[in-house]
């Protein structure tokens, strides 16, 4: 069986998904839609697919599934429209920046027994997957404590900051999802610290650029997250998980692994400096997993519910910073 | 000038300090005192020093300084007695488990213009010192965020747990001091999470074995600490400091640095499994620093005040766990 | 300009090159030829190209270049035929196992002013390329000594051993080329040691499985190579270059970079266990470089001459083992 | 039992051994002798031992053993004198630069059933010892191939070069001993390459500064050595041993193990830059092993025979370079 795709949004991430779809023997890219004709044309020309309107894709009988990479504020509406149209939906995170809107959207998905997968791509990184596989094999025993250090090479443009929902919903949300993926038990408590250390303009936009979060589950499992919008040495993405029998960690990735020795010491090159090169394999594996699920192998995961909980953890962190106290997830969800 | 020492306490840590004193060309070990004659005799025999009572050392005219390694509940009293007797004092941490008692002790030290150095040995570890030196050189710019992972190979005996003051005052206190040493600005806010994951008997004794702490300074600098009483792979002691221009970190230490490659992968041996082998160099450098200060080179540091603040941070963490909220240091001190 | 390709040989390595050609926007795969129809059909089906005979490709007007991945004993003949037919030729190494045959083939290439590139893929590995780039930048000053450790996960089938030309011509030849690539000066002297330690059947087939080589240039630059047909931990491929100002090295590559810590120590997974996964990027970059050269960007390199010299070094090593002496390259070439 | 020592030679290495002897509870430093009174006085003052003449130590009844750290050209004579005097002898390497002289000296030792240990300190380095322990445990199966990279931070003074016996007898000799220690089978063949790349003055003094050696045993086990008198990044001393089941390696040692990350990449400090700090633990363990042997625990090893064979391998390397051929050890010994 071949899954026939419509691609909604032909921007940077749309191109990544177009490549993943066309490179998968089980899938076919039938059509692309974008408000900017040039963007859609570039993909259509490279991969030989149609350019259609969103409406045309919605009603198309030759399309089984859509990948939504349009702006965030259109996600929930598009999910609802395409689920109602009987298409399987892969949507870039987040579903929406409002928890209430995410909930109502998921209600629609459930009512229509729709298939919805959310783009937490890091779960598909081969190194993080291998970490999870070790946990599943029991190598480290019962998971007890997680440490996540996640630092971006640089801050996004200030105008993006303004509509991003803030660092917890925009950046930490990946780490919230990763913590859940690794802890294996739902988080019940959130405490967070936040400051503006990188760029005062970020503070002026109402956001933070340097944050810390502590998470705790009902049985006492714990996770720590350290986030910054600045890392001069590249895209710093490390996780370590400690269990009753040992620990497992994933190191940073760099484009070349050479080392220069001189009187100044031993120097290795910086890390990847861009999420798209850092997570190249993850993006391809994510779409392959969606295609596999639609072909009956496994379920589409992470789900809309995973998107909801990660956003709720972000909301809890925002509240924790504002009220200087530990926030229970039950206060939010 | 040679500094003449009396050693109070001839136990495990007393032996370490005896070796450091006798190995230092600027110092002489004159006498040792211990409630257990056999312990004192062992040191006297090995290094050719006197065995004397604490009272005799207190009044001795041939002794300039004392090193206090007696049980914790005697520290504050002994500091006061020896400061009054005009001796310079090096005291193992903590000064006392009660913040009020530490304050009154430091009042006495100040009133007598006494010299008091507190045994936060990790500041003298060559690797952590090198980290601090990079910060001082400006290599990483302004310090922004600190991440400390500190895990013991195993929990101490339950009867020790009961009189330890709890994990924050017994174990995390080293990390509180290290965070202050590295942040370069006083901590103003503390939030902590705690659980019993390693051994229910620790919980039954009223303590935790797995904790996390977030610290924040007035200007927004932040530190995270992850502590556990369990690490099957040895004594896990890592720090990383992120600044405006880069980061500097100190890796774990292991007794041998070989690697075995086989079909099972690449394996390096476990870490040091005991704090005394892990911190051998730090213990010697700490006493050397005290001797140097008494010889007029530098000041005796870390000070009693450093001991006080680290304990106050521990008290704040205890309160944060109990009240599920961020605690201001100003509530404690 | 688009370079139009014919692919000769649709086996394992042919598939790798087919993928590289079709993934390159500057190239088009027009036709494939293989003695086994099924192999050719698989590639034709996947990439939508023709199946043609070698003769038809030779005379085709819609084909600019060929990639030769047929059995070794056909290489020299095919190079001559396609150069005469005016096609640019990329040929898998080796051109031939006989130095005389390689020379006569290169005479034909020269006579027809043909373009010939030889598949020493390792020059295109991003890590080895980065090593070379550091040398070119002058980071390590004048190159003085090279150390190459190159060990295969396992020996090839015995029947392959028999027609491989022996380990120096089959396996070490890659390291000879790498040594030349890094030394930046022609090798003039070769000394080698050889033994059968892995499998007596290899000895029975007249070959060795464990060899060492020392190379020297006229000015005294030196290189060492250590080769084995056995490496339980994966595909071991390391190089280090020492110069007057420092050194640069390339480490091994592994599919996942996680680490498990337990009472047994710290373990990372084995290396890649197959040259095709180890050198995935190198194979793609090699063809891209050939395409670029045909499009006027740079020259096709490594050249036939590079293939000739690497083979001569292998012949010298064989002679050195037989005669237990240093062999001058001038005795061979 | 306490072993009573005389120390012959109070120079740099004499001081290292004096510290090791006085720090060992099973040993006592009774007397020191040196042609320079000031040198002997420094040791006598620090450790409270006598200053005596070599003759007085020779005839002393309160001395069991001597440590010889006088200039190389006195070693063989002193060994003979003290063995005849019934003292156990530890002698710094080499016994002599002349193979004939070493042989006649060992004849005297044998004739008097003397105890002679030679100072190949690297066998006692904890990391190299751990490598050997893995081999002995069978972790890597049968040893097949050894790779040793050994580079000095800088060349010794030219006047030392002149009397050193040349790089093979002065520097590579350590690696010859290490290769024998690790191969577990006697070397039968030696091939070497040599050049002057670091300093023409070394060539003018009749020596080389950059050399390579290949060794082979009767059963085909092999070792490679790469040596240089230059390493800008510190004292480069690495070994790796490959066996039928896997490999084991020892990494370089550095004084501090921190890492700085910045836009320029990840930098660790240089290695130790001096053999005495690099091999601090090895020097102490070496003397402890000698003391233990004299106390009936184990035998004094490495022996005079080990010194002889290492020198013979150096002579073979010299001959190999001169004659451009593989030299059999049986031609030398």
Automatic annotation (TrEMBL), chains A, B, C, D:
| The name this protein goes by in its record | Myo-inositol 2-dehydrogenase / D-chiro-inositol 1-dehydrogenase
- Signal sequence, start to end: none
Alphabetized UniProt keyword annotations: Oxidoreductase
NCBIfam families from the xrefs?
myo_inos_iolG
Q: Which family does the UniProt entry place this protein in?
A: Belongs to the Gfo/Idh/MocA family.
Q: Where does this protein come from, organism-wise?
A: Gemmobacter aquatilis
| Location of the Gfo/Idh/MocA-like oxidoreductase N-terminal domain | 4-120
The reply on keyword Ribosomal protein is no
MF term (GO), any: nucleotide binding
* Ranges for domain GFO/IDH/MocA-like oxidoreductase: 128-248
| Family annotation (PANTHER family) | BINDING ROSSMANN FOLD OXIDOREDUCTASE, PUTATIVE (AFU_ORTHOLOGUE AFUA_2G10240)-RELATED, NAD(P)-BINDING ROSSMANN-FOLD SUPERFAMILY PROTEIN-RELATED
Cross-referenced SUPFAM superfamilies, in alphabetical order? Glyceraldehyde-3-phosphate dehydrogenase-like, C-terminal domain, NAD(P)-binding Rossmann-fold domains
Concerning Pfam families, the annotation shows: GFO_IDH_MocA, GFO_IDH_MocA_C3
């Amino acid at each position: 069986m071949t899954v026939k795709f419509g691609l909604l949004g032909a921007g940077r991430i749309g191109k990544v998904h177009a490549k993943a779809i066309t490179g998968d023997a089980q899938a076919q890219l039938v059509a692309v839609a974008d408000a900017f004709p040039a963007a859609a044309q570039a993909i259509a020309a490279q991969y030989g697919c149609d350019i259609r309107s969103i409406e045309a894709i919605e009603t198309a009988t030759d399309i089984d599934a859509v990948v939504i990479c349009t702006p965030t504020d259109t996600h929930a509406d598009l999910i609802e429209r395409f689920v109602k149209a009987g298409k399987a939906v892969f949507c870039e995170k987040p579903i929406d920046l409002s928890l209430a809107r995410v909930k109502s959207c998921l209600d629609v998905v459930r009512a229509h027994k729709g298939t919805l997968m959310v783009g937490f791509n890091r779960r598909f990184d081969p190194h993080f997957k291998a970490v999870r596989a070790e946990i599943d094999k029991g190598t480290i025993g019962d998971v007890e404590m997680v440490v996540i250090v996640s630092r971006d090479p640089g801050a996004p443009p200030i105008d993006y900051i303004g509509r991003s929902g803030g660092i917890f919903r925009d950046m930490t949300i990946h780490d919230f999802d990763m913590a859940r993926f690794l802890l294996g038990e739902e988080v019940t408590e959130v405490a967070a610290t936040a400051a503006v250390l990188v760029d005062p303009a970020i503070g002026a936009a109402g956001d933070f650029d340097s944050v810390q979060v502590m998470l705790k589950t009902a049985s006492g499992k714990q996770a720590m997250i350290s986030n910054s919008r600045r890392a001069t040495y590249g895209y710093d993405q490390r996780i370590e998980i400690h269990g009753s029998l040992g620990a497992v960690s994933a190191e940073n990735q760099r484009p070349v692994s050479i080392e220069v020795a001189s009187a100044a010491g031993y120097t290795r090159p910086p890390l990847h400096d861009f999420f798209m090169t850092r997570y190249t394999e993850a993006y391809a594996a994510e779409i392959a997993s969606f295609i596999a699920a639609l072909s009956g192998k496994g379920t589409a995961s992470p789900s809309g519910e995973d998107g909801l909980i990660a956003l709720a953890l972000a909301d809890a962190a925002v509240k924790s910073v504002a009220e200087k106290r530990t926030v229970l997830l039950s206060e939010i969800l």
